[in-house]
Request: fold
Amino acid sequence: MRRNTGLIKFFFPAIALYLLMQTVAAQNSAFTRLSPADSLKVETLLSTMTLDEKIGQLTLLASDWNSTGPAMNANYEQLIRTGKAGAVLNFYTVDKVRELQKLAVEESRLKIPLLFGNDVIHGHRTIFPIPLAQAASWDLASIEIAEHIAAAEASAEGINWTYAPMVDIARDPRWGRVSEGAGEDAWLGSLIAKARVRGFQGDGYSDGTHVLACVKHFAAYGAAVAGRDYNVVDISPLSLYEYYLPPYKAAIDAGAGSVMTSFNEINGVPSTMNRWLLTDLLRNEWGFRGFVVTDWTSLNEMVAHGVAADVKSASALALNAGVDMDMQGSAFLNHLGELLKEKQVTQSAIDEAVHHVLRAKAELGLFSDPYLFCNKKREQTEIMTKESQDFARKLVSESCVLLKNANNTLPLSPAVKIIAVIGPLADSKIDMLGSWSSAGKWEQAVSLIEGVRNRFGSQARIIYEKGCNISDSQVSGIEAAVKAARESDFVILALGESRDMSGEAASRTNIDLPGEQYTLAEAIIKAGKPTTVVLFNGRPLAISRLEQIAPAILETWFGGTQAGNGIADILSGDVNPSGKITMSFPRNAGQIPVYYNAKNTGRPFSNDRPDEKYVSRYLDCPNTPLYPFGFGLSYTRFTYSGIKTIVEGDRITITANVTNSGEKDGQEIVQLYIQDKVGTITRPLKELKGFKKLLIKKGETVNVSFSLSRDDLSFYHPDLKKYWEPGEFNAYIGGNSAEVISASFNL
Ligand code: GLC
Reply:
């Protein structure tokens, strides 16, 4: 139940409030982050605010700077001046933030500072690879550092709240927002969620160089039917708990200070009015102490969902479910007063929501210094530094995944004298930023051809031809492109999606190469020169046809500001690729959803009986994906041997040898999967339970060891309780989810 703040007005004298706060603090861990002075400030404010001022704190308004949704706000300045807005989004720069903060803290009656939110999804000015690319690095430390740099740059420009991390698990690459997440696995997604929250918030976000995180989109937005954005989510409670909720919980456990509700319904109940989700689960079961904000007008959209006759009744549903702040809908602003009068909401519910918001502002240090995030010197010295560019370049190369490399086409030989860089993405800077790069300046991005010129320009002649566009039917440029290929010693063929073909409102039914890119690719490859495809995309693509014709394919996603340089580091062999995909690539859209942690079914297909009819299979396509979860090649070769399992009490240790049997040192992401062979419910064929990213020198053999407890083997049951079951297990170790060595054990 929402806390009853009605008693507070009877304990008005400040000293009584202070004593009350100390008592509450002892009971409630969230207050431990507040200083006694801030606790007193929050309670004093709450007891003196008018209803309008309280509702103002629950109102988030968008700027006219950068719209990330359908509606805009007109008179936000007047609303701020009169205390009727508690937060704004999509504004930044110290001057602008200071200007608006001044309206709040110098002109409004109670001088309550504003939150300034922004979608700092993969960088602020220094744009890092999209989150799905960063996930492919499996480098939790680097992911955390990237978010800390993002927080440092964003907070240097006045932002104190980011709408990230997005932790939605997804198994359907038709959904464009897979680009913003960590892929298909909840266990890996949970580790990445924690790393990202830590990067944004640090150990407490009141030092002015970190920002409040906002874990989104709560919940299960990535399970939209048919991968169509905003579509229905119809899911069993068991799947919800096992495969979709863990990363949100991980982010909350890591201390995320806010949560954003998702647009979708879950089994008939939209998240933005879902009391089971926002109060029973999030607050009462998980102990969340921050505040809940809607997504962009997701409150108003409950009318379209058909669960509210009008925005007024939707507002009551949202507040009573546990929503604290209304993003851009002005629904609370326009209706909470009447709803209170009509007793459709309670004063204590409003006060509880205001309390959550004021506490976040106190934790950010805004009551001590409303201009904490308006440091001109930081803005001038801490953005786009050489260190952040160097780090971004390193993360680009770590995020690249070598999908194919027949005849060791890559890396380019130093003897190459003429390099043809061809394709619709070869000279694009804006596409390098990917979706959600709001403050990133595309002019500062390094395109592929710029990266190639930087790295190879002193040793080879670089020729460029676009060949075709990304997605139209023009082929007039292909002839010149073929001519350039014939003239060259090596061809780099830049293909893929534009940046706006993934991200929000960017679902695709055909997830193969668009436009005339295959016409170009076939013509270029027919020229017979050593050729690699460099792929730019925000989602797994169903590139079976490309896999058949291209000698080499390097997946580079959208690498951000340093894309071209980081990719050139891989093409040249200066960096040995180590990335591994965290979302399966289907052979075609008809296979979707295809994912590694699938069930066996009662009639499993077996390679031993390829012609068996009455089994779970397709007539026209294998069951396996084009590239499986965890897949990625190297310029060297890793071989696995000697897997052993040792059971000691309730712990199991699994070891194996990994040998670098190639000619180059390289990093390998060694993966551990477990299969629970017999359970009281069906269990996946494999579940990722561990990984280690190791540098293994050429010729070296390393013994890797993983140790698991019974808890690591627990799973959700139909009663939604999570526990372990004794029995026989298989352990698998390998460089991806399909190529493994195995051993069994009993626990
Ligand atoms: C958008 C997105 C959400 C984003 C918000 C603010 O509609 O769904 O991810 O944080 O609006 O831009």
